[in-house]
């Protein structure tokens, strides 16, 4: 487990030739945020406010225009994504259709050259946490939306990340499934005690899950506090 610090973080996309989409062209504008070890922080804000860009910079999938990112006291700006000990559960990160759930969960460890006995040990440890034991032999096309999400999160946490980043993990679920999965996530996070950043545009989701909520608008941090602090104002 580790803390995460964003220090004067800026992102400016090169939109040359295109219509300006952001204030001053900054998708992320002087963002300062400190997440304590084991804390669950929700990044809340309307579509286009810079949430995904922030996660992508933390993960190393997007260049930083200016600013610093630390895991504990370690500056990670120049670390390769693979060396960041960050787990990503992004909705657009599709599973490999020809592999069953086990293969998908194991994939990143296989790619890293972890031996199969160790992979098997970790899959068997994580499967009950995510309640996917009965799904391990299934192919991705046979899974429901909620099952896919659980597998996605299993893929992220099997790498034993210090920081877990989730980008709208419930966005394609509706009604009951959404509420059930929210409870699932809460249960899971309590168990794995990973420092987590959770992106959502849903205030209810943020309030019911997060230790603290960071409200972002036009790339600018507007408020950061516990749900009570943020909504009592
Ligand atoms: P959110 O996740 O809050 O919906 P994003 O981080 O996806 O917001 O986007 C923030 C801003 O950056 C938006 O104005 C968006 O149009 C712009 N943006 C996102 N990705 C790119 C890109 N690859 N190139 C140019 N502009 C982008
Ligand atoms: P690779 O060539 O291994 O895919 P990348 O730089 O694309 O390397 O990604 C580095 C790591 O980040 C990969 O191990 C992958 O698991 C993860 N990753 C990349 N893109 C995404 C994404 N959209 N969602 C979740 N994880 C991702």
UniProtKB/TrEMBL annotation:
Signal peptide: none annotated. Residues 4-233 form the ABC transporter domain. GO terms for molecular function: ATP binding. Keywords: ATP-binding, Cell membrane, Membrane, Nucleotide-binding, Translocase, Transport. This is ABC transporter ATP-binding protein. The lineage of its organism: Bacteria, Pseudomonadati, Spirochaetota, Spirochaetia, Spirochaetales.
């Amino acid at each position: 487990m580790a803390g995460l610090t964003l220090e004067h973080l800026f992102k400016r996309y090169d939109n040359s030739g295109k219509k300006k989409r952001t204030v001053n062209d900054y998708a992320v504008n002087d963002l300062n945020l400190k997440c304590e070890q084991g804390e669950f922080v929700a990044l809340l804000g309307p579509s286009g406010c810079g949430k995904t860009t922030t996660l992508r910079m933390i993960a190393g999938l997007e260049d930083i225009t200016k600013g610093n990112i630390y895991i504990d006291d370690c500056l990670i700006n120049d670390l390769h994504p693979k060396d960041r000990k960050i787990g990503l559960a992004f909705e657009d990160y599709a599973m490999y259709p020809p592999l069953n759930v086990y293969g998908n969960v194991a994939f990143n460890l296989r790619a890293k050259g972890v031996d199969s006995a160790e992979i098997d040990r970790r899959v068997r440890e994580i499967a009950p946490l995510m309640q996917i034991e009965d799904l391990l032999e299934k192919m991705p096309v046979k899974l429901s939306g909620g099952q896919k999400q659980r597998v996605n999160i299993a893929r992220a946490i099997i790498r034993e990340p210090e920081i877990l980043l989730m980008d709208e993990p419930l966005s394609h679920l509706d009604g009951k499934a959404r509420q059930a999965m929210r409870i699932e996530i809460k249960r899971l996070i309590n168990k794995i005690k990973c420092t987590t950043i959770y992106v959502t545009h849903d205030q209810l989701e943020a309030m019911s899950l997060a230790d603290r909520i960071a409200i972002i608008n036009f790339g600018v941090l507007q408020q950061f506090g516990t749900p009570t602090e943020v909504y009592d104002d």
